[in-house]
Structure formats: structure tokens, C-alpha cells
What does this fold into?
Amino acid sequence: MKFCIDHADLDAIRRIYEYYPVDGVSTNPSILAKTGRDPYQVLKEIREIIGEDGELFVQAVSPEAEGMVREARRIVRELGDRTLVKIPATPEGFKAMKMLKKEGIRFIGTAIYTAMQGFLAAKCGADYVAPYINRIDNMGFDGVQVAKDIHDAIKASNYDSGLLAASFKNSQQVLELTKYGVKAVTVAPDVIDGLVKNAAIDSAIDQFTKDFEGLVGPGKTMESL
Ligand code: G3P
It folds into this structure.
């Protein structure tokens, strides 16, 4: 499963890239707006951090298909081939996806709240489809189940697509989809940190250090003995 960062803060991206096994960075217009900076400048700086191999996800905002396609060409020209254009899974979006498929520009279906939205984006040739887990939960439905249904529908039709599940607010949502074998998840830095934040872990490591220092002396390590 690929594991991406859903954020545009450069310091946060650098920190998560340093410590965790990460495959890319996803953004959306709201995430970029939080930076208060020129979107292409921010995205180019993210590209520098993640390198040529990292996958970068950037959303088109035009209301009509032709505009989305023009945006997609510019996004890939500015940010490289490993950049996937996020296209909303709407009728105009599906039209744009079919055009992008013909041009060989990689894209992902986004703003997905229903299983059939995800299925249709996959059928249009999306590399990924992005259900919004927590937002679906907040509407009174089961975001993880919607994501599993999309995963199953894609597999049943043997499409070359998969989930980039997004909008996580807790570890359990991420775990459920990790266990299910989805193609990718994209998670905000605070939720990533929460995946491994646990008082029991800290306490176990403190005890190991105390016991070892009791044996060989303060500050000693297996290297310094
Ligand atoms: O791009 C989709 C995803 O980032 C939405 O996340 O946290 O705004 O629900 P959130």
C-alpha cells in the first residue's frame, strides 16, 4: 500500500519524509489555500522535497471538462510526469477524464462520496479514486465501508485502478483500509503521528534505556561500549 501525506506545509512534509516511509504528497485547493502562497511555487517546492519519483497530486478547479484538461496539461508541464491531476468525479469530470486518458495524462477521481462515483472514475481510467472517509462518516454513513465497496467494485471489473483513500481523522479509519489491502492512503501529518503515538510505547523505551544504563552507565549505547 502506498502511503502519502495530505498536506502542503513544507516543514511538515520534510519532517514526515525524514521519519516515515512515504510515497508522495496530495493536495487540494483548500490545502493550498492554507499556505497563503502562490500554488505553483508551493508545489514546486514540494516536488523538490519528494524528488522526481514521489507522486504529487494536484487538483484542477475549472467547472468544465475542457478547462480541466487545459489545467491538467499545465500542471504536468510545470510539475513533472509523476504528477497526477485530481479531477472531481462529476459528469464534467468524467468527460475530462476520458479526454485525459486519450492524451495519456494520469489522473485521479476525487471528491468521492458514493461507491458509484468511484467506480465510474475507475472505469474512465483513473489511476486512483479518492473517497473522503471522514467526511462520509460525518454525513451519517460509513466512510470505510464506502471505500471497501469501491475497492471491491474495481477488483470485480479488473480495472487497473485503486483507492487513494483520503480524509482520515483517526488511526482506526487508516488501519481498517490498510488491512483491506487498498492501493494507497493519504493522511495528514497529525493523523500520521497519531498512528504511532502511545504512552505504552514511550514507557517501554524509557524502561529499556534505564535498565541498560543501570548495567553499563549513563549515556552508554551498544556503539559506545
Ligand atoms: O483532498 C481530500 C482530502 O484532503 C479531504 O480531507 O480533511 O478536508 O476532509 P479533509
Summary: The chain is about 55% helix and 15% strand. The first helix runs from residue 10 to 19. The mean pLDDT is 98. The pocket of SN-glycerol-3-phosphate is lined by residues 6, 28, 132, 134-135, 166-167 (CB under 6 Å).
